[in-house]
Design goal:
The complex is a heterodimer.
Chain A (H helix, E strand, L loop, with lengths): L4 E5 L7 H10 L5 E4 L2 E4 L1 H4 L7 H6 L3 E5 L4
Antiparallel strand pairs in A: 1-4, 2-3
Chain B lengths: L1 E2 L1 H10 L7 E4 L2 H11 L3 E5 L12 E4 L2 H12 L2 E2 L2 E2 L3 E5 L3 E12 L4 E7 L6 H7 L4 E5 L8 H9 L8 H17 L2 E12 L4 E3 L2 E5 L8 H6 L15 H11 L5 E7 L4 E6 L3 H11 L6 E6 L4 H13 L5 E6 L7 H14 L4 H4 E5 L5 H10 L11 H13 L2
Parallel strand pairs in B: 15-17, 17-18
Antiparallel strand pairs in B: 1-13, 2-7, 3-4, 3-7, 5-6, 8-9, 8-11, 9-10, 11-12, 11-13, 14-16
Helix pairs in contact in B: 2-3, 5-6, 8-10, 9-14, 10-11, 11-13
The chains are: A alpha+beta, B alpha+beta.
The complex binds iron/sulfur cluster.
The site of iron/sulfur cluster has 14 residues of chain A, from helix 3.
Amino acid sequence: MAMFIRVDIDESVQADEALKKSLVEVCPVDIFALDGGRVVTLDANLDECTLCDLCIQAAGDRVQVVKLYRE
Amino acid sequence: MRLYEFEAKEVLRRARVPLPKSVMARTPEEAETAASEVGGPVVLKSQVLSGGRMKAGAIKFAEDGAGARAATAEILGITVNGQQSVGVLVEERRDVAQEYYAAVTWDGRAKRPVIIFSDMGGIDIEEVAEQHPEHLSRTHFSNLAPLSDYQAKVAVSRVGVTGNDLGPLTRIVAALVKVFVERDMTLAEINPIGKLADGTFVALDSHMDMEQEARGTHADLLRSLGIPDEDTRMARPPTEFEIAGAKVNDADTRGVAGNITEFDGNLGLIIGAGGGSLTLFDAVRAAGGNPANYCEIGGNPSVAKAAALTKLVLSKPGVDKIAVMMNVVSNTRADMMARGIVKGVIEAGYDPAEKIAIFRIPGSWEEEGFAILRKYGVEFVDRSVSMHEAAARAVAKMAGT
Ligand code: SF4
């Protein structure tokens, strides 16, 4: 269960095949995965997020990395 | 890794250091045959990876084969500092006119290797250094520059050795230096070098420690000495706790978190960074604390790995709290460590605010780390609090438990 990081993916991303693939590729700690054609986050890896922002660079404000400990 | 005397002597023999005749025996019967081979009175020396053999009665003398057989039967039953003998070195007994000491080791402060030589061998060298400093020389050399016998000659002559003795002693010390450098030793020692009645010299006992990490580089030597890969030469077999720590480390290639040594105290330690582990362990002891373990973390372990290590330390019976302390980190992230450790504590069923005595990991991403610790009520300090002070605070907290 992730305790520190949540990653929110805007629903519009699911229609963008190239972006979905890109998210899976850019994340250094495998937080994104394709599941039945949808891009999802893997709960087991969320707390490994390095806050590198590569997903945000790829998706702009359609992906948000939330630091739960700052909330 | 430490070599047995018979192995160290084989290394010396190959380096052309003169030695008394000797044969290794694993049983009393072999010792009897060995004594006949060597001929004349013999000394029988238990082969253990520890000092204190004479005091434990694990060195005996015999006049012939029958005596060697009886003495070996006794020696094989004697443990020396908890170590069982792997055999007995049957060696010709020589009459020694004078004993010398020679060692090559690392001087951590000078950051260079040093030759230590004394004309008072056969006794505790620390005692010589303290009570007879004029009988001991320390000669540093560079292990980057080509080796020269000159440094060995300086080391020997500094304690007043001259004349006919200077040449043979220099050759022995130069050979020892070569072994030390070429075989990645941390210590190569001959104690004593015996000067015999006829004026010749022999290495009577030797002690060698090789860098554990150099095992691969010197696989040829170890193989030729008959040391199998699984012979780790650790002071004792690893405990279940230590094996579990190694598994934590091996399960994830990211960073280091698991090289762990078990102690019997109540303060679990998650420590590391650039020699920080040793400093922090000593700091806890100096402050009167009782570490439950030693460990090494670094190289930015994953959150999962830090959490697994934390859970392991907390699972050790008798651990009341953990202290998380590192030197200033650059390649390990303070926030990832904070995440892993807080997570491990919670998953183990404890409150981080209560279970973590102190958190001191200053350095990269520390502000994010502090935010996590603040959220969970963990006491943390930055680099303005020294490692010793942080350790003392953790120990003080334990007193209140
Ligand atoms: S910030 Fe980096 S590590 Fe975190 S989810 Fe995005 S790409 Fe992955």
